[in-house]
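Retro notes, structure queue

What went well: the backlog is down to a handful. What didn't: a couple of records were mislabeled last round, so from now on we paste the full input next to the output in the thread. Example, using Epimerase from Shimia litoralis:
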Amino acid sequence: MTQSVLILGASGRFGRNVSEAFQRADWHVREFDRQKDDLLTAAKGVDVIVVGWNPAYPDWAAQLPALHDSVIKVARDTGATVVVPGNVYVYGPDQSPVWSASTPHLARNPLGLIRIDMERAYRESGVRTILLRAGDFIDTQASGNWFDMIMTRKIASGILRYPGRTDVPHAWAFLPDMARAVVQLSEMRQGLNNFEEVAFPGYTLTGHDMYQAIKDVVDRPVVCKPVNWWMFQILAPFWKMARCLLEMRYLWDTPHELSGERFNVLLPDFVPTPLPTALVQSLPKDVAGENA
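Corresponding output:
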């Protein structure tokens, strides 16, 4: 029997990749249209609801609680499993460098606290939930993430901008891989914990690692330069997004990786995309040269 999934936010980076992965796995995929669809009606009969909605940082406080409350209510009414993409904002800077489901949520900044409250709502709701936690995204098309919007925006000119110390490990997730994991976890949902938190290990790379990996797949010399954070500081009084980016800056100087222990127990045969392949698929085709 064909399984069905409702994708919320299918036009966004996470939702788009997950929708494509479910389609490749022969699921029946419904893509929710917020302009014309009713959530309860759209969710009737589906096995899984994937929450790809992600407002801009400045809108989190006003929008995220109500969005997720509506998903929880509908999941209760329909019995669907909810898949939520988690991030690393909940942890805060004062942690050991390996983060997992057992790592305490110690963030005290506004964006971190919003995510803590959101995750707690699912955990306490009784709704069957899969929270797949990942680091910064690497996408196969420009979608407004750190990798394409800031770091590699001038890669055609041979410039990589790195936001933090280049000797600090940082967690990354190649979105097509994360999407495949979402499908596989959804297919085994009945055997998971009612609230199943799984860290997606992805790639753990220092800035130097990322620089070297990009140099190896592009067809021109590349230099690594720091992000000009002073520009965000100047803009912060007038631009809410700049204030939010500054708030999360600490992650670029905080050593961290996501433990693959639980992930590897659940999906022991999962084969991640090699980093060079992921970078070739994610960088502009005019710089990937013969590697594209």
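Agreed that this is the format going forward. Reviewer comment attached to the example: Residues 154 and 160 are 7 Å apart (CA to CA).
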